[in-house]
């Protein structure tokens, strides 16, 4: 008796899933390292990032691994403490965006006719607006503070998750268990909390992680343009001070600009890889 034949498409299905898992674990290692660095910043940083500890523009050495800036502050300490601000802004802004996006997406998907149509037209308007100019205008209007930076980023990146969640809710509202609950007299609030939201959790998780990646980049962009909080040390503000104080005119750009730039890239890449792995788990066709 011959064994059953293995489907021809099976190796093709397993290889991308294995690749996604590996990339996801690699991203989790990067993110985990950065989070630990942010949590234990007071113990890891060799100096207070706001104090002058040496001569200006010192190159990297055994005492100052990344050298010093134009006022003699240790750049490694700034980089370590900058992880706290950049990651906090990214995560909190993503939470704000997902709260708005999930609320709009669930309502628009569960009530797809009048209310859903109006909400989706508003989502379309948000998506087609020129993003970067609007981001700059809002940040300049609200003022330079950490709270305002979080609000600006959060209210501008919620539209994409809302559209994704709305499409999922449209599919869920026609399932048998949802129709059965509604036919038995269950209220809409109970159906949404009991059947809709739990089944959009994985999809929202992928969008949330991807939103963190985008929020970190946006915070760095705002801070680099001088629209971030001038008091808080973030990776973007390090780049702002490096550019405004002439680091590119001296060899100091090698240890003043490259490390925070690489940190921003690593954080964004780490969260993006995790989001890729989560989304591939949800929909292997991706």
What does this 3D model show about the protein?
This protein is mainly α and 286 residues long. It has 13 helices and no strands. α3 packs parallel to α7, α5 packs antiparallel against α6 and α7 packs antiparallel against α10. The longest helix is centred in the first third of the chain and has 36 residues. It is elongated and about 75 Å long.
In short:
The chain is mainly alpha-helical. It is 72% helix and 0% strand.
Keywords summarizing the entry:
MetI-like fold, single chain, mainly alpha, 0% strand
Global shape: elongated
Q: Helix share of residues?
A: over 70%
Whole-angstrom Rg:
23 Å
Provide the structure class. mainly alpha
Tell me the count of domains. Answer: 1
DSSP E strands, number? 0
Identify the CATH class: Mainly Alpha
How do the strands and helices of this protein lay out in sequence?
Layout: H1 10-39, H2 41-44, H3 75-110, H4 114-128, H5 131-142, H6 146-156, H7 159-172, H8 176-183, H9 188-199, H10 201-224, H11 235-244, H12 253-256, H13 258-282
Helix pairs in contact: 1-3, 1-13, 3-4, 3-6, 3-7, 3-10, 3-11, 3-13, 4-7, 5-6, 6-10, 7-10, 8-9, 10-11, 10-13, 11-13
